[in-house]
Amino acid sequence: MVSTSSAVPVTVIGGYLGAGKTTLLNHLLASATSRLAVLVNDFGEINIDAGLIESHDGETITLANGCICCSMVDGLAAALESVLALQPQPERLVIEASGVADPGTVAGFCHAPGLLLDAVIVVIDVETVRAKVADAYVGDMVAAQLRAADIVIVNKIDLVDESATAEVVTWLDGYAPDALKLPTRQSVVAPELLFGHGSTDRGDQTAPAADQRFESWTWSSDEPLERSVVEGLMGRVPDDIWRLKGIVRLTDDDRRAWVLQRVGRRWSLRPIARSAAEVVTSELVAIGRPGAVPDGWFADLLGQPSSSEDL
Predict the structure, then answer these.
(1) How confident is the model at residue 177, as a pLDDT?
(2) 74 φ/ψ sector (left φ>0, alpha ψ -120 to 50, else beta)
(3) Contacts of range 253-259, beta carbons closer than 8 Å, 24 or more positions apart
(4) CATH homologous superfamily of domain 4-193?
(5) Residue 296: left if φ>0, alpha if ψ -120 to 50, beta else—which one?
(6) What is the mean pLDDT of residues 140-168?
């Protein structure tokens, strides 16, 4: 049996035709700082700079930054087996579902041994999504895509005004109330907001310092936390805080460390394969809109000393 700590985290990207899924994939490949494996239906739509391509054998494209693109020509199950056989294994796997597929069904394949489902991302066209859901022919399918989402990329906001975007974000609560909604232009979004929801890696604890669209605030304490305090904190997270994650010790369990993850309104607290003795300091980080994380926010809510770093 493959342990969770050694499993490859998988992100599924879905969304109706033309929403911007492939544009998002191109962005992730161009900005990758870790070895990504990407499964796609058609290489033709992937816009990879020729200077980055080390090899291309018809079914795989290997990039100079360690990423690899694989075709699903023989089916998803066979492609997943091929990815797990890679040496070295990728650090993350991204699957682009067809524009007429249910990403929730695709995500079901990601519970296989050696894989760990991280998140389902659905990309929408902010200008047309409501009309698509109301369409008698494709409406049920588009609605099902939205219901499967952990994260909704509200794309093409440059085509509408701010009030129209806000209306769509509110409307989405009827289909994906707990999902994180991220308005974007050309599917450009920081990977830190998309990856790490099912991962126990502490290496991605900070947001990119150069991106002024985000603010990051870190809290740490040498004292274990009361479980009820953590639960209370999760019930009082402002909507403009998009991600909250960290590794903590709890007062009611002195043997194990716990990983805390929150995206949108969904959150989880689960034990990890690391003893409490290995985690001397509990650490939490919040990522959100500038100004969303006020000074002393963690300290006030948790009633414990805090330390922050201006990113």
Answers:
(1) 92
(2) alpha
(3) 254/224, 259/200
(4) P-loop containing nucleotide triphosphate hydrolases (3.40.50.300)
(5) left
(6) 95
